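WARN retry 2 of 3 for item q-0093 after timeout on previous attempt; input resubmitted unchanged.
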Amino acid sequence: TGAFAGRDLPSRSAPSPQARVVPAWALPLVSPSRLGRGGAGSGPLEPELLRALREAESDAVLRGIVTVRGPADLEAAVGGALSAPQARSRVVSALQANALHSQAPLRAYLEGAQAAGLVESYTPFWILNAIAIRARPPAIHALAAHPAVAAIRLDRWRQWLSNSRFEIRDCIRPLRSVESAICNLESAVEWGVARIRADQVWSSLHVSGTGAVVAGMDTGVDWLHPALQANYRGYNPHGPANHAYSWYDATSGGALYPVDGHGHGSHTIGTVVGQGGIGVAPGARWVGVRVFNSQGYGYDSWIHGGFQWLLAPGGDPAKAPDVVNCSWSNDNGFLTTFQPDLQALRAAGIFAVLSTGNEGPSGGTVGSPASLPEAFAVGAADSDDEAAAFSSRGPSPWGEVRPHAAAPGVDVRSSAPGGAYNRMSGTSMAAPHV
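OK item q-0093 returned
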């Protein structure tokens, strides 16, 4: 209980069958005759999960997300005049307290079901009051029959990034140090940075992002890149880096420090804070969250875990970023999977910027989560200030205007893993400019 209230919980691996004796009351079993075609409590089961259960063997392990009844009252938590740190602390406390109370009976069942071999692992989330599970069909049906369960859906494995959605061109030889990056490129401000007049803001208003913290939630970041290292919040020029509050790997890789096996995340964060003319806000610091693997795939639970960490990095809401860039989308604009996450970020005063997707030029092609009311959606424009043909358009499925803004997203040069630089096109490149 104490650990759950104070920090993110790791997945719980199943103990050996000899670990404990499971009391009968802890396992509300469902008769086999009721499991074959939906079984007891099939109402909360989404159709795709129900189909998977019907096709699965009784000993198969399925990944699911159990949504628990009773969302936290975030409006009450942030009522009154509060500073940003106060609002974030109250939001996190409200979410954690609500999840701790409402999930208690389910977690007690899951502990027993683990010992009985019906559940392989589970991970509680407080950001959306849900529990990610890896369980066998009898346990999933038992959970569906529990009165505390609102819904159970598949923990989907999706590709959020693909090479068909952006171009990679002009790989440039890597530089050897932060100093060489700044000295060799400080006069070469990239066209997108100049087009939104960021360089004029630096010189005229003396504003370059100093004091702000921006999160990149993507495929990771090459933190040793010479254009990015000095801006990394965990970087210490006089000693070892501290990654605890500035990096989180939600994927199965579990890297202890920022890495990027894909390149997309390094490119997008470079446009935000990169040195040497590639970044809009070179005075800001960055933190990184990896929610996709090196092929751009990820489980929904990985993304939920990433959003949750942003609210309290390393368990501390005071370390939360001011802005998060999410340069990824799903073609289904109706998808509301991550709406609770964005609602929590918004209540905590964290500004979420999302790309609309690259399914244009037809209308109604905006992807999710940029389509959601809580998101700030960004489309792509070229150097002639024309909307890029690939840029997804609105309106959103709820009739709202999308995108909210268009930004440079064609032939954008930024950082790449290994100290290199390359050019990419896509709404993924536009969102970081905002």
